[in-house]
Amino acid sequence: MTSAAAQGEQEPAAETAVGNSPFHVGQFHFEVERALALFEDGHHDEAVRKASQRFINRVQGWVNRPDLDGVALINKVFSSDAPLLIFNDRSTPIERDEHDGYRFLAVGLASALRNVVTHYDDYGLDQEAAWEWLVFISAMHRRLDQAEQVTEHSA
Fold first, then answer.
1. How far apart are CA 77 and CA 149, in angstroms?
2. Whole-model pTM above 0.85?
3. What tens digit of pLDDT does each residue of 83-138 get?
């Protein structure tokens, strides 16, 4: 099994604060930091779209499935029966619940965030809501860093 962190995808982060939030830029996953200039310029919907699209792109690229996107991609990659990426060994009921829970969160990221802000010209996220979604997306990117690819030996 290989993890994203083992593939050297981490980058150093800046340590400046954005807005009035106690959360600092350096605390965001670097994939989300790429969207912060949009956020700072008031393009809240676009910042959330870009950060969530980066999550989908990372999953798609990691498993080399350009034929799948969005919810279909997430459900295939993190399926209960034959996942391509796993968050843990899935050997206990709690581990299977955790794996399924992260799959459901990722489905929500793809469906409720990426799709909605992509297909509405002006969805209208305010600064606070966008900031909270960026924190969530950052957490999902960090969890993806810890995922492992299923190989024939680890299946």
1. 9
2. no
3. 999 999 999 999 999 999 999 999 999 999 998 888 877 788 999 999 999 999 99
| pLDDT at residue 4 tops 60 | no
The end-to-end CA distance of the chain, in Å, is: 10
| Distance of alpha carbon 139 from alpha carbon 147, whole angstroms | 13
Q: In the block, which residue shows the tokens 């469906």?
A: 111
Residue 131, φ and ψ in degrees, nearest 5? -60, -45
Q: Residue 2's Cα: distance from chain center in Å?
A: 18
Q: Where are the domains of the chain?
A: 26-149
Q: Output the CA torsion sign for 84, 89, 95, 96.
A: positive
| pLDDT score at 92 | 97
